[in-house]
Amino acid sequence: MAFRDVLNIEVNAGNGGDGSMSFHRAKYMEKGGPDGGHGGKGGDIILRAIEGVESLERLLGRRKFKAPNGAYGEGRLRQGADGEDVFIDVPVGTTAFDEDSGRVLADLVAVGQEKIIARGGAGGRGNSTFTSSTRQAPRFAELGVPGQKRRVRLELRLIADVGLVGYPNAGKSSLLAALSRANPMIADYPFTTLSPILGVVARENRDERFTMADIPGIIEGASEGKGLGLEFLRHISRTRLLVYVLDVTRNPVEELRALQAELSAYDPTLLENVALVALNKVELVDADIASMVEDELAEFGLPVLKTSAKEGQGLDALRETLFQMMPAFELWTERHALELEPDTVVEESLRIEFRIDPAARGVGLVSDGQPERVWAVHGGGFEARITRFSRYLEDASEYLGGVFRRQGLYNALKRAGAREGDTVEIGAHRFEYFDDEDVRG
């Protein structure tokens, strides 16, 4: 199976079921009271992190996910069933982004972790809810809320304790193979490693181990999307310790400087990671030259270990140093695991716009024969509320009028200059304005 670390999907949570408009009927009861039940909640779309999956490739056959809708409410106060949630199983280390806003929806760093990325709509209330002392038989019910729809970008960022970072052919794959049980394909050409490779490094005679990732070779300009670098830089972000692998036969000082510049351009916090330098391929130069290069690298303030993956030189010292320098896992999780707030609905502030509409709008003229005066209402949650009664607007007008009055809409219109007979436009719906409330404050 090919390695896949980025995938775009579409998710659509279930709609809430409509509330029921029903009245009790019995053999000896000609006119029973309202008994409409509530609609069920729509199903959520949930990401779930599982183990044993190392790529997003398994999702390639399915790009769209739809959760079931909630069932409609029924008479006799029977509530509709909730729609079942839909789980999308992804590898540990998957981050989900909203493609339109760029907001992080989920960051799954542990097996079993779950996060809702699209919430199902609430069910509508049945007509039994809307009874009052003056409204004994409401002939309207509330419609369900549509479920959230999103375009989501999934990015897999490997969770490894140690990340090997270096330019192509620096010897990262050979070093990983020598230190662990991984068996990467090794050859002498750029981007030999086309996919991140994980290996397990064990401490001799102790029950201790860590995971090491061979990150594909970075080239200059990788942080700007050149080569394959940008596709793999994300995998470095989760490592607890970085190992800069440098080829002693090239220009290690300039390479390290360039590597750090690329990491900083992608994410400046990566330079805060615990790190060391593995000066590799020392079997190809004299010991004096290797020592001289080691001294030159001292300006970076990082530990430098001379290694030869080919001949096994310095590997035991490197392994032991990595175990000793490894940051505590708790510190890593605190820094990288995002505490995401649940989705909240932020209502747009109330905004009222005035315009003169020509008769061609189809609503006709007001009594003075002039083009119709229209007050367009935006925000404040009024459009969403009225939409939930769109099927019963005539019967629900008194109820909605009371809600809008309590929420201050009439006062706001009067302060804006509305007068009796003007038209109030909320979304696709239009109503005549009546001045029936005194302005307060």
Automatic annotation (TrEMBL):
<keyword id="KW-0963">Cytoplasm</keyword>
<dbReference type="InterPro" id="IPR031167">
    <property type="entry name" value="G_OBG"/>
</dbReference>
<dbReference type="InterPro" id="IPR036346">
    <property type="entry name" value="GTP-bd_prot_GTP1/OBG_C_sf"/>
</dbReference>
<dbReference type="InterPro" id="IPR006169">
    <property type="entry name" value="GTP1_OBG_dom"/>
</dbReference>
<dbReference type="Pfam" id="PF01018">
    <property type="entry name" value="GTP1_OBG"/>
</dbReference>
<dbReference type="Pfam" id="PF01926">
    <property type="entry name" value="MMR_HSR1"/>
</dbReference>
<keyword id="KW-0547">Nucleotide-binding</keyword>
<protein>
    <recommendedName>
        <fullName>GTPase Obg</fullName>
        <ecNumber>3.6.5.-</ecNumber>
    </recommendedName>
</protein>
<dbReference type="InterPro" id="IPR015349">
    <property type="entry name" value="OCT_dom"/>
</dbReference>
<comment type="subunit">
    <text>Monomer.</text>
</comment>
<keyword id="KW-0378">Hydrolase</keyword>
<feature type="binding site">
    <location>
        <begin position="308"/>
        <end position="310"/>
    </location>
    <ligand>
        <name>GTP</name>
    </ligand>
</feature>
<comment type="function">
    <text>An essential GTPase which binds GTP, GDP and possibly (p)ppGpp with moderate affinity, with high nucleotide exchange rates and a fairly low GTP hydrolysis rate. Plays a role in control of the cell cycle, stress response, ribosome biogenesis and in those bacteria that undergo differentiation, in morphogenesis control.</text>
</comment>
<feature type="binding site">
    <location>
        <begin position="166"/>
        <end position="173"/>
    </location>
    <ligand>
        <name>GTP</name>
    </ligand>
</feature>
<dbReference type="InterPro" id="IPR045086">
    <property type="entry name" value="OBG_GTPase"/>
</dbReference>
<feature type="binding site">
    <location>
        <begin position="280"/>
        <end position="283"/>
    </location>
    <ligand>
        <name>GTP</name>
    </ligand>
</feature>
<feature type="binding site">
    <location>
        <begin position="191"/>
        <end position="195"/>
    </location>
    <ligand>
        <name>GTP</name>
    </ligand>
</feature>
<dbReference type="InterPro" id="IPR036726">
    <property type="entry name" value="GTP1_OBG_dom_sf"/>
</dbReference>
<feature type="binding site">
    <location>
        <position position="193"/>
    </location>
    <ligand>
        <name>Mg(2+)</name>
    </ligand>
</feature>
<keyword id="KW-0342">GTP-binding</keyword>
<feature type="domain" description="OBG-type G">
    <location>
        <begin position="160"/>
        <end position="327"/>
    </location>
</feature>
<feature type="domain" description="OCT">
    <location>
        <begin position="346"/>
        <end position="435"/>
    </location>
</feature>
<feature type="binding site">
    <location>
        <position position="173"/>
    </location>
    <ligand>
        <name>Mg(2+)</name>
    </ligand>
</feature>
<feature type="binding site">
    <location>
        <begin position="214"/>
        <end position="217"/>
    </location>
    <ligand>
        <name>GTP</name>
    </ligand>
</feature>
<comment type="similarity">
    <text>Belongs to the TRAFAC class OBG-HflX-like GTPase superfamily. OBG GTPase family.</text>
</comment>
<dbReference type="InterPro" id="IPR005225">
    <property type="entry name" value="Small_GTP-bd"/>
</dbReference>
<dbReference type="InterPro" id="IPR027417">
    <property type="entry name" value="P-loop_NTPase"/>
</dbReference>
<keyword id="KW-0460">Magnesium</keyword>
<dbReference type="InterPro" id="IPR006073">
    <property type="entry name" value="GTP-bd"/>
</dbReference>
<keyword id="KW-0479">Metal-binding</keyword>
<dbReference type="InterPro" id="IPR014100">
    <property type="entry name" value="GTP-bd_Obg/CgtA"/>
</dbReference>
<dbReference type="Pfam" id="PF09269">
    <property type="entry name" value="DUF1967"/>
</dbReference>
<dbReference type="InterPro" id="IPR006074">
    <property type="entry name" value="GTP1-OBG_CS"/>
</dbReference>
<feature type="domain" description="Obg">
    <location>
        <begin position="1"/>
        <end position="159"/>
    </location>
</feature>
